[in-house]
Structure formats: structure tokens, C-alpha cells
Amino acid sequence: xxxxxxxxxxxxxxxxxxxxxxxxxxxxxxxxxxxxxxxxxxxxxxxxxxxxxxxxxxxxxxxxxxxxxxxxxxxxxxxxxxxxxxxxxxxxxxxxxxxxxxxxxxxxxxxxxxxxxxxxxxxxxxxx
Length: 128
Fold this sequence. Notes:
Layout: E1 4-10, E2 13-21, E3 26-28, E4 31-32, H1 33-36, H2 40-53, E5 59-66, H3 70-88, H4 93-99
Parallel strand pairs: 3-5
Antiparallel strand pairs: 1-2, 2-5, 3-4
Helix pairs in contact: 2-3
């Protein structure tokens, strides 16, 4: 099997994934998964599509991850891994779609508007 690549985005985080056959090693920006995401919750989020298809020990994954915070990065990586797995085996798409791993979460920070302190917050109104 050759290397399969895919892209995942969330907020301002971008994950480029390269999946090849191997032993289940996930390397993010030349660091191990546990070192890059010390939180077990974020590690779980990243591995969700692999665990759903029960292929966690079958593939080695190399990741270029940039932008955003740790939550956005982990969710961008989850999407990228799911997309790569579908490229490898298109029959898996239905199972991953049912779990919501194939959908790009398009929510991002709303821009600040002029004449306001934040996007929707208004300055305090004074009648007199």
C-alpha cells in the first residue's frame, strides 16, 4: 500500500495526514501523539475513527498540524484521519458518516463589528 494523504480543518487549525501501513504509530509534527496531546480526552478524539473501524494497530500516521488551539487541532486531525481511511477503503464511509466523523465543523469565531466591544456585545446604553 502506498501513502494516502488527506486534509482536515477546524476553526483555524489545519491537519495534513499521511497514512501508511504499519504498527499504529501516530507522529504529529515529529513528536509522538502522547507528547503532543498530553490530555487523554484529546488522544481519544484523535483515535475515534481508528477505533470505530478497529484498525488502530494497522496504520502508521504522520501529521503536519498548524494553527488553532489544541481542541481545534485534535478535531481537525480526526477529520483528516477519517477522510484518509475512506480513501483507503470507501466501504467504511457509511460507518464514519453515522458517527459524524466525515462532516467538517464549519463554526469559527465571528468577526468583531465596528462600534461594539465584541462581535455581538454592545456598549452599555445610557439614556442621559
